[in-house]
Amino acid sequence: MAKPKRVYRCSSCDFISPQWMGKCPGCDQWNTLVEDFIAGDSRPVVKSSRQGQPVPFGKIESSRVARRRCGIDELDRVLGGGIVDGSLVLIGGDPGIGKSTIMLQMAHNLASKGMTILYISGEESAVQLKMRGDRLGAVSDNILIYSEVLLEDIKEQISIIRPDLVIVDSIQSVFSSHNDAPPGSVSQIRESAGILLEIAKGMDTVVFVVGHVTKEGWIAGPKMLEHMVDTVLYFEGDNSGAFRILRAVKNRFGTTGEIGVFEMKTTGLHEVKDPSAMFIHGLGEDVSGSAVMATIEGSRAFVVEVQSLVSKTSYSMPKRISIGSDPSRMSVLLAVMEKRAGTYLSNSDVVINIAGGIRVNEPAVDLAVVMAIASSALDKPMPKGIVCIGEVGLNGELRPVNHMESRIKEAIRMGFTRAIIPQANYDNLRNIKGIELSGLPHVRSALDVLR
């Protein structure tokens, strides 16, 4: 066998270069070329793995996808109602955020229903996993621990045991002996994912794969990895904080964008059934720089608090800091406030924070951000019981947002008594009772609430 050849492969588009370059010529992305190895005399062998003939689309018999609930309602919600037999699920997140914890809790719940779970650990020993299981109260004889990193041995054990569910922790630690590249390299991750996909589809076994993320927040390895799997879940949140957000960024069997909210405690991850009650306290604060909005994540509506701090600065370049929302969007809103509403903040530092560690990137948060900034700049608190929902255009107009009825109903459930919304949304919500709706055309009209 010829000596493996060193190349540099793009983790985004799979472009191969003989030398490292800062910018990939294939996709124009920066810093995506990583070292890889390919066999010098290897050629891809294509073989047919599926039997059958082309079938007319209309004659294919469709059947509802059978799901198994895993006993964690928030996880079931993100998965689209439960796990699907033969599916390959990838879950990623920062170190220590709770990936292995939720996998072990899920395994325990399914094992208590009589399912056989094979937990493959490439990073922790069996003793370490037992210590974690004792702490979480997630120990069962139906959970089989296998500390191994060689994929050929893993595949052999799966063929012998025939488990109902396989958990691989993590995809970066396992490797194939048929590939001379080191574990964690692009080619090893691609080959490992191909073998696990073959196991999931060929044996009709559910396979969960844990993946590490890069410093930019993307799952480490080739982008092809996310294309190969059926579902991609991301854990979000600050490791120092209590709350974790599990988000589905890809789901062939459910809704993309669905989220589940968890709270990390000493006994593991606990579901947060009512996120609105966790992200806000009461109907708003009695201090300046606070506004409340109702956001939509997947099919769920909940209210969050937008906080702002505006302070004078003696420096020529004031700071603009945004935590939990788009920083560039905040700069646009500050320009709109100055040009269209006469609120001058060019000599002030402005800080925006979405309380609770959640990220809100939808345009519907614009009005709440503007109101929080104006409240802090004028040092006047928002009247209690008001929720602000709406997108702010470049001319200062309030533009309509989607799912307004669901947002308003969530605000009513939380006890809010007034909603400031765009005029275009107000015309379609005249029949809603239990809250005063203020449909306004321009951001100047909304700022009059504080003046």
- Structural class estimated from helices and strands: alpha/beta
Which percent range describes the beta-strand content?
25-35%
Average of the residue pLDDT scores: 87
Instruction: Work out the number of β strands.
Output: 23
CATH class label of the largest domain: Alpha Beta
Shape by Cα distribution: globular
Cα separation of the termini:
79 Å
- Low-pLDDT residue spans: 42-48
Radius of gyration: 26 Å
What is the number of domains? 3
Verbal overview:
- With 451 residues, this protein is an alpha/beta fold.
- The protein folds into 3 domains: 5-38; 67-273, P-loop containing nucleotide triphosphate hydrolases (Rossmann fold, 3-Layer(aba) Sandwich); 277-450, Ribosomal Protein S5, domain 2.
- The protein has 12 helices and 23 strands.
- The protein has helices at residues 73-79, 99-111, 126-136, 151-161, 186-203, 224-228, 275-279, 327-340, 366-378, 404-413, 423-426, 443-447, and strands spanning 5-10, 16-17, 33-38, 67-68, 83-84, 88-92, 117-121, 143-146, 165-169, 206-211, 231-236, 243-251, 259-265, 268-271, 290-297, 300-312, 320-323, 348-354, 386-388, 391-392, 398-399, 418-422, 436-440.
- It has a 9-stranded mixed beta sheet with strand order 8-7-9-10-6-11-12-13-14, sandwiched between helices.
- Helix 4 runs parallel beside helix 5.
- The longest helix has 18 residues, at 186-203.
- The protein is globular, with a radius of gyration of 26 Å.
- The chain starts with a strand and ends with a helix.
Please outline the helices and strands.
Layout (H helix, E strand, L loop, with lengths): L4 E6 L5 E2 L15 E6 L28 E2 L4 H7 L3 E2 L3 E5 L6 H13 L5 E5 L4 H11 L6 E4 L4 H11 L3 E5 L16 H18 L2 E6 L12 H5 L2 E6 L6 E9 L7 E7 L2 E4 L3 H5 L10 E8 L2 E13 L7 E4 L3 H14 L7 E7 L11 H13 L7 E3 L2 E2 L5 E2 L4 H10 L4 E5 H4 L9 E5 L2 H5 L4
Parallel strand pairs: 6-10, 6-11, 7-8, 7-9, 9-10, 17-18, 19-22, 22-23
Antiparallel strand pairs: 1-2, 1-3, 4-5, 11-12, 12-13, 13-14, 15-16, 16-18, 20-21
Helix pairs in contact: 4-5
